[in-house]
Write a structure and sequence with these properties.
The complex is a heterodimer. By secondary structure, chain A is an alpha+beta fold. Helix content of chain A is about 50%, strand content about 10%. In chain B, a hairpin with a 2-residue loop joins strand 1 and strand 2. The model of chain B has no long low-confidence stretch (mean pLDDT about 85). The chains are: A alpha+beta, B mainly alpha.
Chain lengths: ~400, ~325
Amino acid sequence: MSVETREMLINMGPQHPSTHGVLRIILKLDGERIAGSEPEVGYLHRGFEKLAENMLYQQFIPYTDRLDYLASMNNNQSYVVAVERLLGIKAPPRAQAIRVIMSELGRIASHLVWLATHALDIGAMTVFLYCFREREAIIDLFEAAAGNRLNYNYARIGGVAFDLPKGFKENLQKFLDIFPEKLDEYHRLLTKNRIWLSRTKGIGILTKEQAINWGTSGPVLRGSGVEWDIRKAFPYDGYENYDFDVPTNQTGDVYGRYLVRMEEMRQSRRIIQQAIEHLPDGPVILQDSPYVSPSKEKIMTENFSLMKHMVLTIKGMRTPVATLYSATENPKGELGFYIVSDGSGKPYKLKIRAPSFINISAMPTMLKGNYVADVIAVIGSLDFVFGECDR
Amino acid sequence: MSDAVIGALIFLVKFFLLFAIISVFVLYATWYERKVIGHMQQRIGPKRVGWHGLLQPVADMIKAFFKEDSIPRDADKLFFWSAPVIGTVFAMMAALAIPFGPPLVLFGRHITLDVVHLPSGILYMLAMLSLVSFGVIFAGLSTKSKYPIIGAQREVAQVISYELILATALLNPVIMAGSLDLTKIVDAQSHLWFIFYQPVAFVCFLISMFAVSARVPFDLPEAENELVAGFMTEFTGMKFSLFYFAQYVVIFTVSMLAVIFFFGGWLGPSFLPPVAWLFIKWAFFIFLYTWSWGTFPRYRYDQLMNISWLILLPIVIINILWTGFAIQFGLPYLH
């Protein structure tokens, strides 16, 4: 009898507790070492891009909620900013500030879920529940403002749906006051934990060149030492007025990406603090714009407003014939919308550049030569959401 | 009645007492862990079944009992059936040698408080404990399924890492007591607990203790987030529960070993009976398991091997040499 060793082909996912949804990775294993890997995506494909072609621009906003369902606010903002750029309009200052507050809160919430699941995957169970405790506070704020707890559908073309409710600012301030302490608590649990360090340092390395060549974005790119943030490079919704840093890390490993995201939460808090201190007064949605429905009161009392509302709801807005790519900085990376407009109320083509999808494509590079146990560390550090990846 | 019959009766009574203690422990250890870790994580843990969820373990057991018992088509039936039994039986056999207190004199009869009293008890216990891992290895290999095979492979790696440390760390108290008999080892600590003489050996033992019972941070063979459930992936119902049973019996036993070897066993002020002292100290270790579960992430299996072979093993060996040296040359070590 002869003894031989063979590479083992193993399927990780789509039903695996740590593949964050429905990722399937085909792993080629040499013992526990990874000789090759191939991510398979598409199990959550719902055809959003095609759906968009058959609905009015404003009707697509709720669908963006379901892209990265952990950061619905950011997706809403990203989409309406794209459409606003197409139409050549800008939301009023108060609406812009509210959107910034909401999307930064969304970023914190999304990063909290990332930290929770990332730590849980590596075995630190308590961090999971601590993070969800803080996320709950953010979700309560969102619920107060938008009425929903997961899919908010809050931003509108030309503004936001509702003004901030009573007591929102106070509750938000309360959260902002306790949040740094909680962040320190997570740092105490993980950042200098020997086991955490040995599980994350030097694992899943993505060099600067690789990160750029794979087209990664967001914390993955910044974790590889590239200082690139759409909020700084192509500011939208008045991000140029806020003072914040773009954290980067030169190491390009799981730990580097971890530190980047942890610091981003702190920076997001800084932005929100500035935003509520200088929250402008005024309307939260454009008034008298040809693209925005008038207020309910006007619709009920003015004939012209009623007509305008009817046309906007049935036929949609009259858009310029143009092609446009607009991107915003989502918690996961660069979320872009490529819109081809033929002048009608529906997009001729709407392409979504999902950061999760592109970040996943860099995964085989990071995994090669690591252990099976590192797969989940790398998955955690990429922080993808399949609603967005598969669209 | 002849001596032999009475001896056999005593043995049976002791055996069923031990079995009862362990069964209750295993049932309520799960409840206790869920409660403690719940409060650590700002939740409340089980609450619905019975007062503060006290009947939860019973409900869990009933559920496990009535689960469908599925066997993978390609599984090796003999080993698939025997694996959980092997684990449980050897874990129980290890527990047989635990002394729960000093020998009693009852009706003029000398009764030791362990089910079997062996002059080399610790050797026997270590042997049984290392056989437990065969249950895990058989379980992983017999299913012919990929995740369990990786789990079994990790168990092998884990066994060869901790086994040596566990035995050599316990060698220090053995050398100091001059006996392999657990009762004599406790008696040797009547002056001062061995933890104060042997802190290094204790730390090494503590680390390998977590490894032998496959708990966080060394729960590699079952690593839920990586290998789904590792070697247990294909097991359901009572077979699945038996693995948990074996694991908790191992936890019970090694915690007892820690108390007996380093914390003076049942020794303590006389206002409480010796058995109470033993269980109070032991409860601390059970808490320690839960605490580490709530605090630590998980190591990777190659890292465990590195820690064991490159860091802990040299330390324990030097420690043994030092202990031997100290005793040989009569350094102020023992009374």
